[in-house]
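Record 1 of the preview.
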Amino acid sequence: MAEDIVLALTAGEPAGIGPELCLALAAAKRDVGVVLVASQPMLEARARLLGLDVKLHAWRPDMEPRKGVGELSVLHVEGCTSHQAGKLDTANSRYVLDTLTVAAKGCLEGDFDGMVTAPVHKGVINEAGIEFSGHTEFLQELCGVERVVMMLATEELRVALVTTHLPLKDVSAAITPERLTQVATILNADLKTFFGIAQPKILVAGLNPHAGESGHLGREEIEVIEPTLETLRAQGIQVVGPLPADTLFTPHWLDDADAALAMYHDQGLPVLKFQGFGRAVNITLGLPIVRTSVDHGTALDLAGTGKADAGSLHTAIRVGEQMARSLKSATKREI
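->
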């Protein structure tokens, strides 16, 4: 029998669709253990609003998570002062970050095998006076690692990023040999650890149109990217590029590749989201824990309507479980 996996699931922004996506898990029996890390009164209020008959059971680390139809396990987190669907409240911002902290620390301490995150609202957290650029950077700091990598994936495509939430004007300066080396090395290692790929093949996009056109459209490829890729190849990492981003995402290149590495957020993610929005998963690589997330935002206009699609959350849970099992297997091989 496969070893039981327990995932922490943070419910995200209370005003958004995250709470109801979490509650929707109770509609069917689950094979994997899931513990909602959230305010239990907030979840109960959303269930009443939607007319859902869901029993929420308080959970402790010595308990098995509930997996039956109509029931869910909850690790309650205090501090959610407003439960109104669709209406943001800065007073909830610290609570939202506390759910992430509780889930991540639970993973680090062995209570959970990984964490899955519903969407948060960056704007309202910053309006509360808390500097926050995203889950990825928050978990990087909490786990005390120098570099993490954001990767979104569907069944057919994986796209990782060299830079994440930066203004476009700052991207070129941020693409350094050190950063590119760290990102490519993490991506290569975690494709092996979490996805069982013995020798990953990674396609690397150039920064400029036509990958710089031999320096006529920019010199970042010549001065930074290509020399760094040569060093990585000498270390046994199979990187191909730099390739023009407008042709990298075509079957000719992708059919025998394991991942694409884009230089910045909106170079790679629009392609992936067009290809698989609603069934993609956001993965943070480089952490000592497993973390996956949905590929969409808080959708305040849908909150409380019961119309939100839980497809991406189901994918995030499934991939989180697979990654957790792969990590356990890799850890056992090392012992």
